[in-house]
């Protein structure tokens, strides 16, 4: 899943369902009240709505989202898969912003590094855990974990100024390019595995857990 120069794969900047323009300098806050909020919370200083979420009907009802279809008739992800893709799309928008501004200073990279860490933690507690437990796509899960840890390590070193001054820009830019490919492969490989592994009801329940962790 790591990025490679000259790759013929589609540009992942077109995936993820995020709105471009999310600013990496803005922080995220906790979940808003869940009553009547349909999965809303604050991300990067703005009100954000997980588009696949819908309100529960009745006390304690575990409601699976209705299947939705794209322009070409393909079934769109719901539940945990949609939460994963939406979170990844937000990260892609942040990466684009950082790269366009040529950010190399630690304080400017921190929002991206922190958001990626929460995204990874949410994925570890839900996506990776359930796929490993059910023996589905275990090789993909382990590769995803290793490459995510590698990217996080580069970002964490950048935050503490541990990259040599003369190579810092190239190192960080390489990590951001790798994150693009990582998030694209996450959508390509993990989301279909989630669809195979989970019932709609289980997927919806884990989606709520994913969103709570990624919100911080």
From TrEMBL:
- Low complexity: which segments have biased composition? 20-30
Segments of this protein annotated with the region Disordered: 1-71
Q: What superkingdom heads the lineage?
A: Bacteria
Q: Where is the composition biased (Basic residues)?
A: 37-55
Q: What is the protein name given in its UniProt record?
A: Uncharacterized protein
**Source organism:** Streptomyces polygonati
**Taxonomic lineage per UniProt?**
Bacteria, Bacillati, Actinomycetota, Actinomycetes, Kitasatosporales
């Amino acid at each position: 899943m790591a990025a490679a120069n000259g790759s013929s794969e589609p540009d992942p900047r077109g995936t993820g369902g995020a709105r471009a323009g999310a600013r990496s300098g803005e922080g995220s806050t906790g979940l808003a009240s869940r009553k009547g909020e349909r999965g809303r919370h604050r991300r990067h200083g703005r009100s954000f709505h997980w588009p696949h979420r819908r309100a529960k009907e009745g006390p304690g009802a575990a409601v699976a989202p209705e299947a939705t279809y794209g322009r070409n008739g393909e079934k769109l992800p719901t539940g945990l898969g949609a939460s994963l893709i939406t979170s990844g799309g937000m990260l892609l928008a942040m990466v684009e912003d950082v790269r366009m501004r040529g950010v190399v200073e630690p304080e400017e990279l921190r929002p991206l590094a922190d958001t990626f860490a929460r995204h990874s933690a949410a994925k570890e507690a839900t996506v990776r855990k359930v796929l490993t437990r059910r023996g589905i796509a275990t090789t993909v899960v382990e590769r995803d974990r290793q490459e995510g840890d590698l990217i996080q390590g580069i970002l964490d070193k950048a935050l503490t100024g541990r990259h040599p001054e003369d190579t810092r820009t190239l190192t960080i830019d390489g990590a951001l390019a790798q994150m693009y490919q990582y998030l694209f492969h996450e959508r390509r490989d993990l989301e279909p595995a989630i669809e195979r592994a989970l019932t709609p009801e289980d997927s919806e329940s884990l989606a709520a857990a994913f969103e709570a962790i990624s919100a911080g």
